[in-house]
Amino acid sequence: MELTTILTTIALGIGFSLSHCIGMCGGFVAACNLKLSKTDRITHFILSLGYHLSRVLAYVILGILFGLFGSAVIFSGFSKGLFIFFAGVILIILSFAIFKRGRLLSCIEDQKIISFIMLLLSKFRQKNSTISLLILGFLNGLLPCGVVYYFLAISFGSGSIIEGAAIMAIFGLSTIPVMMGLGGILSAIGAKFKNYINLVSFFIMLGYGIYLLYLGFMVLK
């Protein structure tokens, strides 16, 4: 895996967890914290970490599947170059969709799938076992999300099960610090800082999409 991919994944994981992820998954995290409100600090930390690691596990499994699909489709230099080029186009479209948060993002983040997963979440939310909490985290990781799709496209383009899993693991782990508690700091800072972070993340994502366009073009040349 290229160092550029690793650093971009970490930067976007942190950046979007401060903007997009807080809005997308903040309600589920708040529900998780509410379930753990009566526990002591150590237990709360361990169970909350378990919740988020289960979410990351869902990302890793998706990364393995997309890496596997990529290895089956990308079987030559030409097909890899072609996919990398079109992946760049897709990532550029996703960057604008996430930044603008308009109708295009609503189409990408399918409401029917969200409603189905919400139904499952509501069933497990009523239970107070550790297993139900871990399942909640796993289901949280399956929610349709433009940012997750972005990294799944990269996992697919890697054409590798190991790299696909690693990309999704790095992304997921990068979101944990904010999702576990720094959201309160973000709220104290205000919406202006959140918009700034969102803008920076947009340019990083857009830049990486253009970078993939260039790589694909050079392979096809």
Explain what the structure shows.
- The chain is mainly α and 221 residues long.
- The protein is built from 10 helices and no strands.
- The longest helix has 33 residues, at 41-73.
- The chain is globular and about 60 Å long.
- The protein starts with a helix and ends with a helix.
**Which stretches of 5+ consecutive residues score pLDDT under 50?**
none
Main sheet properties: none
Strand content is under 5%
Radius of gyration, Cα only, in angstroms?
18 Å
Structural class: mainly alpha
Q: What is the tally of beta strands?
A: 0
Number of helices: 10
Distance between the termini: 23 Å
Please state the overall shape, judged from the principal axes of the Cα atoms. globular
Helix content: over 70%
Secondary-structure element string: HHHHHHHHHH
The chain-level mean pLDDT equals 75
